[in-house]
């Protein structure tokens, strides 16, 4: 096979382009770019001994390849980034999906409001980020809104000003109560501007501005206002002290470092804005060697900036990259200005790089220690249950319903003791009667196994262990389905104590296996039980809420299923749709329907105001 592929590669032109590697099933497993396709692609099938283990494993699975010739190597880079984002080949350096790096969005309205979104759009709004995760974005937003006492409710301004009493947050001093009408539009927008400066990391200038406002208020004997400004200034100063300040020459930059420990690599990015270290992002990669560090850095840069579509003026890396000049050119297009990708050798930049490298080393060591602990937990679990080997993939199942209606099932996945959330699956129970846990579990397992038998990769591989929220009856219901499908996967029920924590595991014969004396196992199984229950409850609530929202929208003349879906895709929640102006609704709906929707919600609001 290698000789055939090599002969095919040698027929390629000495032109720039993109090559696409496919396995025996036709699936794309790797995408790369080349300055000269013939030279680059033929290298994969020549002198195999010189390849890194990762490359050798990829090449061993290549059954065929195809190429796309481009006008230049730079065009090849752009195409490569786009194709990797689209196909996500398993041997390319893959980061989190777009939801992994959220942004804060400031709407373009008379009274702008903040929200957390997965990616920026060309909609005239202002975006801050990206952040390392949704929790980081939420923390930044909550801190900013609390510091400046801005509303966190879903009221729409100016429409809802004066229509209701201020909420509890206003009474306890956590909100300036825009809804009361006591805060002018100019004052509100001035506060929004200060929040923007806080999110941009401009702590020192903002603190000085607040100090001047405080002194002016004190001179005018507005002592309550002066005290509020003092508290705000101190909060900003505290935030500034918590950040690592660097010199103005390095005010806006990303520092990206890669380190390898054993067969795992870690890339850490430190984001500096206005001289402040505002965020840290990290990605782990398995099956790599120190020789792969350049590929890891390049892969991270290509995918990260393809997702975020923005770049600082300086990007620092800890080793020279093969495509460093082209990456600078590409990032310059995103920034609409010159971008420098550099390897710092001395001075302040080198200190920042050493900090990033130390962060990457610490992340690898911490993960290694966690995995050693988890490995011991899995060994103990296998010993307790009499399994032939520690379970590498565990699936948890739970059933949820509301008074016997809207029954759903949740499937969670642990791989090597860590939750693998992209492998989670949810099921709407279609055949089993409401309240029939046994029937619901049997239907869920039957559908799960059928999908695996059909080759659906979302349900592969099969697990080494099944843990069911329930007792002997639930275990036997699942056992029956497994036998019908010719499977012999160990199944145990998770029996809870009075505090709803898993106290033991039970098999189909009613034998209980205590886990309380093994704290690591107790924690592992308890966490799986809680996560599965959370996932099931969350899905059940979402379906119930969605049904209520759709029933509300379906009562509005002119809204059918297709238009309701379009509204949900554009605005998300019913509360957001309810707050939209006629102009905003007309972006999705015909003008006459947008008017009907707005009139419907206005009429509803008028009814609610009547005593």
Structure keywords:
19 helices; disordered C terminus; 5 domains; 611 residues; eight-stranded mixed sheet; 19 strands; GIY-YIG endonuclease; five-stranded mixed sheet; alpha+beta; globular; Nucleotidyltransferase, domain 5; single chain; 46% helix
Note down, in words, how this protein is organized.
It is a single chain. The chain is of the alpha+beta class and 611 residues long. It has 5 domains: 2-92, 3-Layer(aba) Sandwich (GIY-YIG endonuclease); 100-242, no CATH class; 248-364, UvrC, RNAse H endonuclease domain (Nucleotidyltransferase, domain 5, 2-Layer Sandwich); 393-544, Nucleotidyltransferase, domain 5, CATH 3.30.420.340; 555-609, 5' to 3' exonuclease, C-terminal subdomain (DNA polymerase, domain 1), CATH 1.10.150. The protein is built from 19 helices and 19 strands. Strands 12, 13, 14, 15, 16, 17, 18 and 19 form an 8-stranded mixed beta sheet that branches. The radius of gyration is 28 Å and the shape is globular. The termini are far apart.
- The shape, in one word, is globular
| Strand tally | 19
Overall tally of domains: 5
Class computed from helices, strands and strand pairing = alpha+beta
**Main sheet record:** 8 strands, mixed
N- and C-termini, Cα separation: 81 Å
Shape-level CATH architecture of the largest domain: 2-Layer Sandwich
CATH hierarchy class name of the largest domain = Alpha Beta
Helicity level: 40-55%
CATH topology of the largest domain: Nucleotidyltransferase, domain 5
Supply the CATH superfamily name of the largest domain: UvrC, RNAse H endonuclease domain
Please give the radius of gyration in angstroms.
28 Å
Please, what is the average pLDDT? 87
Q: What share of residues are in beta strands?
A: 15-25%
pLDDT < 50 runs, ≥5 residues:
243-249, 606-611
Number of helices in the DSSP assignment: 19
